TrEMBL record:
UniProtKB keywords: ANK repeat, Repeat
Annotated ANK repeat ranges: 336-368, 823-855
Gene3D superfamilies: Ankyrin repeat-containing domain
SUPFAM superfamilies: Ankyrin repeat
Keyword Repeat belongs to the record: yes
Species this protein is from: Fusarium falciforme
Identification of the protein by name: Ankyrin repeat protein
Name of a matching Pfam family: Ank_2
Length: 1253
C-alpha cells in the first residue's frame, strides 16, 4: 500500500481539526505530522489559530502543532499571536513564544495585542512573559502612553494595586514617562489621577523639567480648584522651568484671578521679570496680585512705566487709584508719572493727581499738557489748582487748553473753563470761533455766549456765521445775545449790516412767529432798508399764507413795494391776496405803476387764480386806485372767453365792473363785443352797446352771433339788439361781411337747422338768400367747391337741415339750377343723392333742369335708378314726367338692381338695351346684370326668378347675346359675378343654353383660345365654385376647346378647327422624323468617338516613349554636371585646408602665450589657497579638539546610561527567574490535581489551570 504524500497529509489537517474527540484528534494530528504534513505551512498555521481559538485551549495539541508541526507563529498577519495574547491563561502565551520561532515583529505584535486589554495582574504577568522572551531591548514608550490612557478611561477603583501593576511593570522595564513630549504624564495630570502621577514621579526615569513644563498647562486645565492647586504645586516643586511657570502664571492671572493660592504658588517659582504677569495683573485690576508680584519679583522701571500707562486706562477710579499708588510706590519715572497726570487731569481725578505729583509728576512737563488735559476733561477744580500753581503759563498753552475745552460735553462746565482761560488773556480767533458752536447749542449754549461775548468775541467772525447759525436754528435767545439786545450787551461788539442781512435771509424758512420776532430783533439791532429788505417784502407777500404783521413791519421799517418792477404788488395781485394788497396800496402809487401792476397780475396764465371772488375784490381795489387802459379790456376778454355756465354769475360781476370803469369796446377790433356775441350773452351785449362801438365792431360781433347754441328766443333778442342799435350814423350794415367768414345764413342754419323763425327773420331783415360759401360735396373731389346756401343746405348729411328751411329758400328765389364748378352738381342731383323726394318734387316744380350731367357723366335719372327700390321708382316717375332723356345709363342701373318695373318703363321710353354706357365701362344692360346683378346681396330664390325675368325681358327687347365687353362674352362676365354660380345658372336658363358652344363665347388672350370650360380651368383663379361651374356648363352641353392661335399646339390642345388639326398632324410627323434622324446622328457620333479614343491612346504611347528618351539624356547631362561640381569642390577644399592650417598655427601661438599668463596666475592663486588651507586646518584642529571633548562627555553619559540599563536588565532577569520558579510550581501543582483518583479526563484538562492565590 502506497503512503500518502506530505501535501495530501497537509490538506487533511483541517478535516482533523473538525474532530470533536480530543484524544482521537491528537493521535490523527500526530500521524499527519509523522507523514510530514508540516510542509503545508498555511494549513498548519490555520490549525494553530483554530486551536488557540478554543476555550479551553488543548495544551497537548498546542505542543504537538508547535513542536512537530513547526507552526509559524508569525503567520496570518499576527492573528496567532493576537489570539495567544488575548487568552486569559498566561501559560498559553508562554508556550507559543517558547516553542514557536520568533522574528523581529513577534514581540512588537504581542505588545500591540496586549495594550488594549484591561489593566489587571494577568496583563502584567503576560507583559512579563513577553518581555522575558525578547532578546533585545524594547521600546515600551508607546505602550506606556496607551496604558495610561486606558487607566484614565477606566472608571473602576483608581487606587487598586492590580490595575496599576501593568503601569509599574512598564516603568520598571524602562518605559519613559517623558516620551512623546511627556504624553503619559500630561494625560495623568489632565485627568487628575494622583496615583498615576506619583508612580511616574517615583520611577527610575522621573519626569524632566521640560516634561514638567509641558504638563503644567494640563494641570491648569483641571476644573476642580483643589486638584488644580495640588497638581500645579507638585509640578512646580518638582522643578518645572521658571520660564514655563511664568507662562502658567500669566494664564492663571488671566483665567483664575480670584484663585490667590494658585497665583501665589506659581509666583513663588516663576521668572516674571519680563513683566507680562505684572501687566496682566494690572489689566485684570487686581491690586492683591500686583502686591504679590511686586514683592516677589524685581521688575525694571520701564516695565512699571508701561504698567502705569495701562493702569491709566482703567475706568474704575477706585481700582485705578489703588493700582497706580502701588506702582508709583514701587517706582516709576517722572515722565511716566507726568503722562499719567495728564490723564488724571483730563478725568478730573484729584486724588490720583496728588499721588502722582507726590511721586515725581510735573505739571510743566509736555509743554503744559496737563492744563490742556484738564481743560479737555472739563475739570474746573483741577484747572484751578494747575493755574494757581503755575502763574506764568504760556499763552499758546492757554489757547490749546481753550481749544481742548471745546471737547467738553457739559456746556456749563465748558463755560466755566472758558471763563478762567479768558481771564488769563485768551483772545482772538480761537475765541470767536466758539460763537458758532455755542449759537447752535440752543439754550445750553447761552452761558458760553455770555462769557465769550463779554470777553470781546466778534459776532461778525466768518461773515457772521454765529448769528446766521442762531437764526437758522431758531434760537431767539442766543440771537439776542449775539445782537447785544441784553442788559450786559451794551459794550460788546455789534453785528455789521452784512451779518444782519445774512440773518434775515436765514430766518425765512422758520415759522411765522419766530421769523417775525427775529426780523424785529434785526431791525432793533440796526438793520437798514436795503435791496435785500425790499426783496424780503416781496417774499413775504409771495407766500401762500402771507404774514400781515411781518409785511407791516417791513413797510414800517422802510421796505418799498415798488422796487423790482412793483414785484411785491404784482405777486399780491397774481395770488389774489386782498389783505396784503390793501397794506401795500396804502402808499401813494402812480397811474403808470398801478397799470403795470394790473397788467402783470391779470394775465392769461394766472386766469384760474384771479377769476374768483377774491380776484374780483383785488380788481376792484386796483380799479378804484386808478387802473385803466388796454389791460382792463384784455382782462375782460379773458373773462368772456373762459366763462362757463357755472361761472356766468361771477363773469357778469367782472364784466359789469370793467364796463363801469371805462373799458374800450373797440379793443383789438372790438374783441369784447365779439366775444359777448359769440357767447350769445344778451346781458354783456347790451352793456357793451352802451359803450358806443364802431360800425366795424358791430359787423364783426354780429357775424359771431351764432357761435354758441342758445334758444331761438335768446338769439332773436340779440338780433334785435344789434339791428335796433343806432348811434348817429353808426349802425348794423347787413351787407358787410369780413373776408373769409361764413355767410350769416349758413351759420344760422348750422346752429338752428330746424328753426324756420330764425331763418325767416334773417331773410326779412334783408340778408341775401343766395349767399355763397365753400363746401366739399363729393369724396372724390379733394378741394371744397363754391356753392349757394340752397346747395349747401341740401348737401348736409343725414337730412340735418329741415325741408321747411330748404323750401323757404326756394320760395325766396334761390337758384334751383346752380351748378358747382368742379363736380358740376346741381341742387336736383344732391336732392336725389340724399334721397329727399319731397325736395326733388319741389325743385322740379320750380323749374329745375333735368337734362344735365355731372362731371362723371351722370344724369339725375341715372342717379335715381342707382338708388333702387320704391323710392327710386317714385323719383324716376317725377323725372320722366318732366323730361325724356335716353341712353344715360339709367337702364343699366335699373337692370343691375333687378328693378323689372323700371327696366320696362325705361325701355318703353326709348332706352336701348345694348347701349354701351360709359358709366358702366361700355357694357350693355344685359352685361351689367351678368356682372353686377348679384352685388346687392345674396341671390335668394325670389331674386333669382327676378334676375331671370329681367334677363328674359332684355333678350326679348332685342339685346344681342354675342356682344363682348373687353373681349369677354356675357357668359364669361357671369363667371366674375359676386354669386357666379347662381348668375351663370340663371343666364344659361334664360338664353345662353342654346349658344353655349358658339365661337362668340370663346375667349382669346392673344396666344391661346379657350372655351368657357377651359377658361374656368386655365384662366380663372382657384375658387370654391370652380368645380360646380364646370359641372353646370357640362350639364348644359358645353364642349372643351383649347388651342394655340398660331405656332405649335400644346400637348393638351382640344377642339381644334379642321385646318389647324391638319397642320398639327403634319407637325407631329415632322417631329417624329427629326427624332429618328437625331438617333442616327448620335450613333454615328459614338462610333467616331471610339475611333478617336484609339488614336489618342497610340499618340499617348508615342509621347511616353519620347519622354523616356528625353529623361535619359537629361540624366546623363546631370551626371556630367555633378562630376564637374565634385572636382571643383575638391579643389576648393584643398585651398581651404591650407588656409585653415595657417590659421591654426596663428591661433596656437596665441594660445601658448595665453597659457603662460594663466599658469603664472594659477601659481599665485595656488599659493593663496595653500595659505587658506593651512589656516582652515588650524581652525579644524581646534574644532576637532572641542568636538572630542564634547564627545568624551557624551561617552561618559552613555556609559552611565548603560550602567543603569544593566542594573535594569539584572532586575528583569531576577524577576524572570522568580517567574520561572512560580510557573514550575504551578505545573507541579496541576499534575497533582490531575492525578487525583476519580478526577476528570487528564488529557482534556491539559492547559487549563485556575489562578491560585
Amino acid at each position: 500500500m502506497q503512503a500518502a504524500s506530505p501535501q495530501t497529509a497537509a490538506a487533511r489537517i483541517q478535516d482533523v481539526m473538525k474532530v470533536t474527540d480530543h484524544r482521537a484528534r491528537y493521535d490523527m494530528m500526530a500521524m499527519l505530522f509523522n507523514a510530514r504534513a508540516s510542509v503545508g505551512v498555511q494549513h498548519v498555521a490555520d490549525a494553530l489559530l483554530a486551536t488557540l481559538s478554543e476555550k479551553p485551549v488543548d495544551m497537548s495539541l498546542l505542543h504537538l502543532i508547535l513542536q512537530q508541526g513547526r507552526a509559524d507563529i508569525n503567520a496570518l498577519d499576527g492573528q496567532i499571536l493576537q489570539k495567544a495574547v488575548q487568552n486569559p491563561d498566561p501559560k498559553v502565551l508562554d508556550t507559543v513564544l517558547s516553542i514557536g520561532k520568533q522574528n523581529v515583529d513577534t514581540i512588537p505584535r504581542c505588545l500591540d495585542g496586549l495594550a488594549p486589554l484591561p489593566s489587571t495582574d494577568n496583563k502584567a504577568w503576560k507583559l512579563g512573559v513577553i518581555l522575558s522572551k525578547s532578546a533585545r531591548k524594547l521600546d515600551l514608550n508607546s505602550m506606556l502612553v496607551r496604558e495610561v490612557q486606558s487607566l484614565v478611561q477606566d472608571s473602576s477603583d483608581k487606587s487598586s494595586m492590580s490595575t496599576l501593576s501593568t503601569l509599574k511593570k512598564l516603568l520598571e522595564c524602562g518605559a519613559d514617562p517623558n516620551a512623546y513630549q511627556a504624553r503619559p504624564l500630561c494625560t495623568a495630570v489632565a485627568a487628575a489621577r494622583e496615583p498615576l502621577v506619583d508612580i511616574m514621579f517615583n520611577c527610575e526615569k522621573s519626569p524632566t523639567p521640560a516634561s514638567l513644563a509641558v504638563a503644567l498647562p494640563h494641570a491648569l486645565s483641571i476644573s476642580d480648584p483643589m486638584n488644580r492647586l495640588a497638581f500645579t504645586k507638585t509640578l512646580v516643586e518638582a522643578g518645572a522651568l521658571p520660564r514655563e511657570v511664568n507662562r502658567a502664571l500669566g494664564h492663571a492671572i488671566g483665567h483664575f484671578t480670584s484663585d490667590f493660592a494658585l497665583v501665589s504658588t506659581l509666583a513663588s517659582s516663576a521668572d516674571a521679570s519680563d513683566g507680562e504677569a505684572l501687566a496682566l495683573a494690572v489689566s485684570k485690576e487686581s491690586p492683591e496680585i500686583l502686591d504679590l508680584l511686586l514683592s516677589r519679583t524685581k521688575h525694571t522701571i520701564e516695565i512699571r512705566n508701561s504698567c502705569l500707562d495701562t493702569a491709566m486706562k482703567i475706568t474704575d477710579w477706585t481700582s485705578r487709584l489703588a493700582i497706580c499708588s502701588r506702582l508709583a510706590k514701587a517706582g516709576v519715572s517722572p515722565q511716566a508719572a507726568s503722562n499719567a497726570l495728564l490723564i488724571a487731569a483730563r478725568d478730573g481725578d484729584l486724588e490720583l493727581g496728588d499721588v502722582l505729583i507726590a511721586h515725581g509728576a510735573s505739571i510743566s512737563t509736555n509743554d503744559g499738557q496737563a492744563i490742556i488735559e484738564a481743560c479737555r476733561g472739563g475739570s474746573v477744580e483741577v484747572l484751578d489748582v494747575l493755574l494757581r500753581s503755575n502763574v506764568d503759563v504760556q499763552k499758546l498753552t492757554l489757547e490749546r487748553g481753550f481749544q481742548a475745552a471745546t471737547e467738553v460735553g457739559d456746556l456749563n462746565k465748558r463755560a466755566m473753563v472758558f471763563e478762567r482761560l479768558l481771564k488769563r488773556g485768551v483772545s482772538g480767533e480761537v475765541v470767536d470761533i466758539q460763537l458758532v458752536s455755542a449759537a447752535k447749542s440752543g439754550e445750553a449754549g447761552k452761558e458760553i455766549l455770555r462769557v465769550v461775548l463779554a470777553a470781546g468775541a466778534d459776532p461778525n467772525y466768518s461773515n457772521g456765521e454765529a448769528v446766521v447759525a442762531a437764526t437758522r436754528s431758531a434760537f431767539v435767545g442766543n440771537l439776542e445775545l449775539l445782537l447785544g439786545l441784553w442788559h450786559q450787551g451794551s459794550n460788546q461788539k455789534k453785528a455789521s449790516p452784512p451779518t444782519l442781512i445774512r440773518a434775515l435771509k436765514a430766518c425765512w424758512k422758520l415759522s411765522s412767529d419766530i421769523r417775525y420776532q427775529i426780523v424785529e430783533d434785526l431791525f432793533k439791532a440796526g438793520m437798514l432798508a436795503t435791496d435785500e429788505v425790499h426783496i424780503a417784502l416781496s417774499k413775504a407777500v409771495g407766500e401762500d399764507e402771507p404774514d400781515e404783521r411781518l409785511i407791516q413791519l417791513l413797510l414800517d421799517s422802510g421796505a418799498s413795494p415798488l422796487t423790482n418792477g412793483c414785484y411785491a404788488m404784482v405777486q399780491a395781485v397774481q395770488g389774489v391776496k386782498a389783505s396784503p394788497l390793501k397794506l401795500l396800496l396804502a402808499r401813494d402809487i402812480s397811474e403808470q405803476d398801478i397799470n403795470q401792476i394790473f397788467s402783470g397780475g391779470f394775465t392769461a396764465e394766472k386766469f384760474a387764480t384771479w377769476f374768483s371772488p377774491e380776484g374780483f375784490e383785488v380788481a376792484k381795489m386796483l380799479l378804484e386806485k386808478g387802473a385803466n387802459g388796454d389791460a382792463l379790456s384784455g382782462a375782460m376778454v379773458l373773462v368772456m372767453k373762459n366763462s362757463t355756465d357755472q361761472t356766468e354769475s361771477l363773469a357778469d360781476q367782472f364784466v359789469e365792473l370793467f364796463i363801469e370803469h371805462g373799458v374800450d369796446v373797440d379793443y383789438e377790433n372790438g374783441e369784447p363785443l365779439v366775444w359777448a356775441a359769440s357767447k350769445a350773452n344778451a346781458f354783456w351785449t347790451e352793456k357793451l352797446l352802451t359803450c358806443k362801438p364802431s360800425a366795424q365792431t358791430l359787423s364783426l360781433a354780429f357775424e359771431r352771433l351764432f357761435d354758441t347754441a342758445r334758444s331761438p328766443d335768446e338769439v332773436l333778442r340779440l338780433f334785435e339788439l344789434f339791428s335796433g342799435y343806432r348811434d348817429g350814423e353808426v349802425g348794423l350794415d347787413i351787407m358787410v361781411r369780413s373776408p373769409g367768414s361764413e355767410p350769416i345764413l349758413v351759420k344760422a342754419i348750422s346752429q338752428y337747422p330746424r328753426s324756420s323763425e330764425v331763418l325767416q327773420t334773417l331773410l326779412d331783415a334783408g340778408f341775401y338768400h343766395d349767399q355763397t360759401t365753400t363746401y366739399r360735396i363729393h369724396d372724390k373731389v379733394d378741394e371744397p367747391e363754391e356753392l349757394t346756401v340752397l346747395v349747401w343746405a341740401i348737401a348736409q348729411p343725414q337730412k340735418k337741415v329741415s325741408s321747411n328751411l330748404i323750401k323757404m329758400l326756394i320760395e325766396r328765389g334761390a337758384n334751383v339750377n346752380f351748378e358747382t364748378t368742379i363736380s358740376r352738381t346741381t341742387p336736383l342731383m344732391l336732392a336725389i343723392q340724399t334721397r329727399r323726394p319731397d325736395i326733388v318734387k319741389e325743385l322740379l316744380i320750380e323749374g329745375a333742369n333735368v337734362d344735365v350731367t355731372d362731371a362723371m357723366g351722370r344724369t339725375p335719372l341715372s342717379m335715381a335708378t342707382e338708388i333702387g327700390g320704391e323710392l327710386s321708382t317714385r323719383m324716376m316717375g317725377n323725372l320722366l314726367a318732366i323730361d325724356q332723356s335716353e341712353d344715360d345709363g339709367s337702364l343699366h342701373n335699373a337692370a343691375r338692381e333687378l328693378n323689372l318695373a323700371a327696366v320696362t318703363v325705361l325701355v318703353e321710353h326709348g332706352h336701348h338695351p345694348d347701349f354701351p354706357s360709359p358709366l358702366h365701362d361700355g357694357r350693355s344692360a344685359l352685361g351689367e346684370v351678368c356682372l353686377n346683378g348679384s352685388n346687392s346681396g345674396a341671390l335668394t330664390a325670389d331674386r333669382e326668378k327676378l334676375m331671370n325675368r329681367v334677363m328674359t325681358f332684355l333678350v326679348k327687347a332685342g339685346s344681342d347675346l354675342s356682344i363682348k365687353s373687353h373681349g369677354k362674352s356675357l357668359l364669361l362676365l357671369c363667371f366674375e359675378a359676386s354669386d357666379a354660380l347662381a348668375t351663370t345658372r340663371v343666364f344659361l336658363k334664360a338664353a345662353m343654353w342654346k349658344d353655349i358652344n358658339k365661337p362668340f363665347n370663346h375667349y382669346t388672350d392673344g396666344e391661346y383660345t379657350y372655351s368657357p370650360t377651359m377658361y374656368i380651368k386655365k384662366v380663372m383663379p382657384e375658387s370654391d365654385t370652380r368645380d360646380q361651374l364646370l359641372e353646370l356648363l357640362q350639364k348644359n352641353r358645353a364642349v372643351d376647346v383649347y388651342y394655340a392661335n398660331s405656332g405649335d399646339q400644346p400637348d393638351d390642345a382640344i377642339g381644334l378647327p379642321a385646318d389647324m388639326e391638319v397642320e398639327e398632324r403634319e407637325r407631329r410627323a415632322r417631329l417624329r422624323r427629326i427624332m429618328l434622324e437625331s438617333e442616327d446622328h448620335a450613333i454615328a457620333l459614338a462610333r467616331r468617338k471610339e475611333v478617336a479614343n484609339v488614336e489618342r491612346e497610340i499618340w499617348e504611347n508615342k509621347a511616353e516613349i519620347e519622354d523616356a528618351r528625353r529623361r535619359k539624356l537629361h540624366n546623363e547631362d546631370l551626371m556630367a554636371t555633378r562630376h564637374k561640381a565634385d572636382l571643383e569642390e575638391s579643389l576648393f577644399n584643398s585651398a581651404l585646408k591650407r588656409r585653415l592650417s595657417e590659421q591654426h598655427k596663428l591661433t596656437q601661438s596665441s594660445l601658448d602665450r595665453t597659457k603662460a599668463v594663466a599658469a603664472a596666475e594659477l601659481k599665485a592663486e595656488e599659493t593663496r589657497q595653500q595659505k587658506m588651507l593651512e589656516w582652515e586646518t588650524k581652525m579644524n584642529t581646534e574644532r576637532a579638539s572641542n568636538a572630542q571633548a564634547l564627545s568624551s562627555l557624551r561617552v561618559s553619559e552613555r556609559e552611565e546610561l548603560d550602567r543603569i540599563e544593566r542594573g535594569s536588565d539584572e532586575r528583569i532577569n531576577k524577576r524572570l527567574e522568580a517567574q520561572k520558579k512560580l510557573v514550575e510550581t504551578q505545573e507541579r501543582l496541576a499534575k497533582r490535581i490531575a492525578s487525583v483518583p476519580g478526577g476528570a479526563d487528564a488529557r482534556r484538562q491539559i492547559g487549563f489551570v485556575e489562578e491560585v492565590n
